[in-house]
Amino acid sequence: MKRALSWLLAFCLLASPAAFAEQTDGSRTVLLQKNGLTLYRAASVGENDTLSYRVDSPAFECDDAALADYLTQNITEPLAALCDMQPLSADTTAYDGGKKDSLIATFSASLDFDGILSLEALVENRSADDKVNRKQFFYRIVDLYNRQLLTLYDLFTDSPDTVDSALRSAVYTQASQQGTLLAADASQVPAPDSICLYQAVFRCLYAPGTLATDPMSVDIPWAQLGLTQSDRLLHNAVSPTGAQTVSPDPSATETAEEEASAVSSGDDPASDAPSTDDPADNTPSGEAPVATNLDDAAIAQAITASDWSVNGGYLHFNPDGNITDPTGGDPLFIRYTVQNGELALDSVQRPGQKAFVQQADGNLFLTFEPEISDYTTLTLASVPAGTLSQATAEPTLPPLSSIVTPTPMPVAGDDAEIVSFLTKGLWKPLGSDGSTYYLFTADGQMLTVQVSPYTVSGGVLASGAINGSVSLGGSTAFTVTGSDGTQTGYVLNRAAVSVAPQELVTPSPSPTPSPTPTPTPVPTATPTPVPTPTPTASPVPTPTPTPSPSPTPTLSPFEAAQQTAPTLTALTDAAFARRQTLMVYSAPDENSFRDKQAQVTTDDTVAIYGVTGDWVLVSYAIGNGSKGRVGYVDTSTLADPANVAKLNFADIPLTLARDTSATDDPLRGKAELFKLPKGTDVKLLAFIGKDWAYIETTFKGKICRAFVPGSSFTDK
Fold it and tell me: What pLDDT score was predicted for residue 322?
């Protein structure tokens, strides 16, 4: 058999005999091709009654049928065994309402080193009644000449202990630049869960909770390892006597035996490998197109040479790094960079989605790193530049009669009936977020009501409009004393009658007693006047001095802030409508500081504190719950964001009275995020709990919101 196709076997292994409700499989893309070996990415997407799956499976085609079988048995089959297609939950009610198990499998591969196939894969299974993906890592390093699986230690001439030590040190140095590690030093770095060999870097992949809280991919330049590569890695692999080697391309003039001889004498069999400069020359007759690997310059030239169609939309890569939709729509990605042979794409929700780029038949094939991307693969179909134009047609508005009001407005009736209708209660504009209401009074006044949250704690009212200590006056008035001592009186004014300032009683109005009516005297006879004796002067009493009031204690700026700044409290009437992994920022701004590992899956375990603009403030646990984070995600997955309570922070400038540490985790681990020295000016926004002040400052040149102990503002 000239060419042995193993991709069909891959699908037989993945698919059960049961028919799937929806299924799209059999799609193949040539991922790699060298020395007569072709590696396909075989895509399988579908669902049945209990499972939704998206599986990329490696499939091999080779002139040497025995080698294709060997790769299938040692890569395709064990990888397929990790893809659990059976129902994961023993509780059949877990699948009620259309809920399904989830299965996602992706892989990457390299033939960068002659005679070496390196492949790593990730399989994620999740039960319908679970919220956590079970991640299973898989990798293989295959010596194609000797048909042998290699270990990490086969790649170097150094001792295993030296290899382990060098790898731990290099990983710690490189990964420390990417985020906060669980390892305190290099000696605590664990062995990688998966590895892949590329010409430029040695890639190590770590599961969440091993090297860092979140999954991490670490690329180490080979020179940084400081190890000596073995002959197998240096293109000097020698086939043992009688072993079958990888066959060259059929168009080559040497036979398999001649190639084996050439390898034994030290020649590089890659010289007979099919050229990747011209994909057409490498396309087997009747087979899938060959994808050419692109370097930085080729990627930049390719993506800017055309417009691209992807996922029902369009992309135009501008030379300045921005991405637009030439039809005027919202592009799938908004920015890009090209570096180290990868295309990094930023979406609105998730920046830095790195993809390996290949080109075939004018199209681009993107293979993403699944741990840091929303996608596994994307195909960009070429659209000649300039053929797409932005639509200029005016939008069509629905006729007014098509808008349904909650309560039909009477279309007839006299003015009195209209007024009676308007004065029924508060009205809000149809389709608004409920932050503004209108109240019509019977005497012809219309009140505009702006809605914002408020809290009362320890006798202190905190809101967006009125802040301070409250003193009640009878049943119809109250007085607010602000942080600067200013007092303002408020009276209950049911009839919407204007109130003059002098009517406000400060600090507390006292009720005035009604006068007792004077009785009408009964007329009597006029008496004869009697001379009045001259009165004797009474001594004038000495006035009693009025005591001076005791001085009011002066509050420090922080003590005053404690009376006015709000306290953050998790909402009980807000939730996320769907699960999606989103990037977490320290402030409601994409340009604010963000820990590189900060992301959260929006589910019912995430606490919601309120929204500001297009952002929602959340807190969530990390890993086993001993750590956590408070930060902002966009509102794209929030249920009814227009009616979620708005955040209403204070804006109080304060100065730190002592050196302190800031954290983004005040509720759990309280780990230090960065230090702030005494004398640093910050802005106080709110409090959380009894001990933590929520502040805004800058960190690494970016806006950052974090928490510091309340004691940071006092030298007591």
Answer: 92
